[in-house]
Specification:
single chain, 344 residues, mainly alpha, two-stranded antiparallel sheet, two-stranded antiparallel ribbon, 13 helices, globular
Length: 344
Amino acid sequence: MGGSVSCCISPGESPKIRRRQVELEECPITTAEDVSEDTGTYLQHISDRELPDELAQESNPSDHPRASTLFLNKSQTDVSVREKRKSNYLNHQMSPGLLTKKFSSCSTIFLDDSTVSQPNLKSTIKCVTLAIYYHIKNRDSNRSVDIFDEKKHPLSREKVPDDYSVVDPEHKLIYRFIRTLFSSAQLTAECAIVTLVYLERLLTYAEMDICPCNWKRIVLGAILLASKVWDDQAVWNVDYCQILKEMTVEDMNEMERHFLELLQFNINVPGSVYAKYYFDLRSLADDNNLSFPLEPLSNKRAQKLEAISRLCEDKYKDLCKSTMRRSVSVDNMAGIKNSQAVLS
């Protein structure tokens, strides 16, 4: 303090700064192009220091729209799915009169009431539970985390069976569990899709598997987080304790905290990723004969679809105008005025 030369102004005297220089030499984040005489050293944005696109897409399918979803890959490896596809093909070729699926014609158009912005709740929950079922059935191993182990953190006072970590749950059991949560908490179909995104992000980030011993708590944690992020009026943890009466608020809070830490607090779901999961769920439904309810297109429904389309188009135009208005600078405005004066 008060000396003419101190570690604050002499880098060579500070061992901390010397260590920092070694770290920067080992892990450089700038190049010669990043250094400017006016601005000094340019620090890259955190998004610029992420993994390359190819590696990120391969390891984090819940973050990038071009990466294939995990559940669709799991379902396509199942032999029964390929057999169903073959039987469907034979039915189309040999006995079209026995088909129950409705097809559009020149006089009648069949549409379901499920869209990307407003999916059908019941059908979406069925598809999400089927995706989770294939995750469990075709898992690579049994890697897990203690906080999700139902033996160590039971959801009810009932004794957990000894073979709880061996027997795979049926699709109906998974559907009944998720449907109970969604109906009791009054959650939306969009929340179900975001739940699946968070679930696959957890499996990727934490390098774990969803298996018979942890699937309930993983699904519960994903639903809990998705409802808080997606819905305007989120369900509180204590409300879930009213649904699962044997679970304590402290256990719920701890599970949510671990879930967020394993996600690295990345709860962002881009619209392109959401749309990819929606259409992949529809593909999964087609592969497993889970058809969405079809209804003939009436005049009333056609007018409603036209009104929704016009409303979305107007919102898109307004958004483009506001974006251009913010991006136009004073110099550009002067140039526009000069060009208008020349034209006039």
